[in-house]
Amino acid sequence: MNHLFVIGGARSGKSGYAQQRAETCGLSPVFVATAQAFDAEMTDRIARHRADRGPEWQTVEAPLALPETIAAHATPDRVLLVDCLTLWVTNLLMAERPIPAACDALTQAIEQAQGPVILVSNEVGWGIVPDNALARRFRDEAGFLHQRVAKTVPEVQLVVVGLPMRLK
């Protein structure tokens, strides 16, 4: 299996599709979580997702250190499933980290990964222009990152209403 980028809207089925691809590739699955539980709803959501994956999955939390996590865990006997890049961009924004440098490090980590990496993200560019500077910056940074990741990996799937459509 090669690297894969799975993108789609909220509740499009992209995470389920990415999980199915990881589980059927024959390698040991590692879930790289970028989410942070800042409230009870998110804590419950994370617990549900963890239970849905099953005991064969190892989970590694990487809310900020995503490139380093990929470098440390991408081995030929594992498949990494990173879910999701838009939460990672949010975390970088909130921590006031330099996003272009982090994106450089991420694409380099993907290119150098010794095993397959599946990256999941939310398409954020199909809506209206946000009404505030922070939301516009988020949309722009996520869009730039998506373009870079799509250029870096050999396969890109857009998932809409549970149906994957191969873009690359």
Automatic annotation (TrEMBL):
InterPro entries reported for this sequence: CobU/CobP, P-loop_NTPase
Binding site for GTP: 8-15, 33-35, 50-53, 61, 83
Keyword terms: ATP-binding, Cobalamin biosynthesis, GTP-binding, Kinase, Nucleotide-binding, Transferase
Provenance organism: Novosphingobium nitrogenifigens DSM 19370
Catalytic EC class: transferase
UniProt-recorded name of the protein: Bifunctional adenosylcobalamin biosynthesis protein
Gene Ontology BP annotations: cobalamin biosynthetic process
Similarity annotation: Belongs to the CobU/CobP family.
One function term, GO molecular function aspect: GTP binding
NCBIfam families associated with the record: PRK05800.1 (NF004469)
Biological role: Catalyzes ATP-dependent phosphorylation of adenosylcobinamide and addition of GMP to adenosylcobinamide phosphate.
Pathway this chain belongs to: Cofactor biosynthesis; adenosylcobalamin biosynthesis; adenosylcobalamin from cob(II)yrinate a,c-diamide: step 6/7; Cofactor biosynthesis; adenosylcobalamin biosynthesis; adenosylcobalamin from cob(II)yrinate a,c-diamide: step 5/7
EC number, UniProt record: 2.7.1.156, 2.7.7.62
PANTHER family the record matches: BIFUNCTIONAL ADENOSYLCOBALAMIN BIOSYNTHESIS PROTEIN COBU, PTHR34848
Reaction(s) catalysed by this chain's protein: adenosylcob(III)inamide phosphate + GTP + H(+) = adenosylcob(III)inamide-GDP + diphosphate; adenosylcob(III)inamide + ATP = adenosylcob(III)inamide phosphate + ADP + H(+); adenosylcob(III)inamide + GTP = adenosylcob(III)inamide phosphate + GDP + H(+)
Active site (record annotation): H49 (gmp-histidine intermediate)
Domain of life: Bacteria
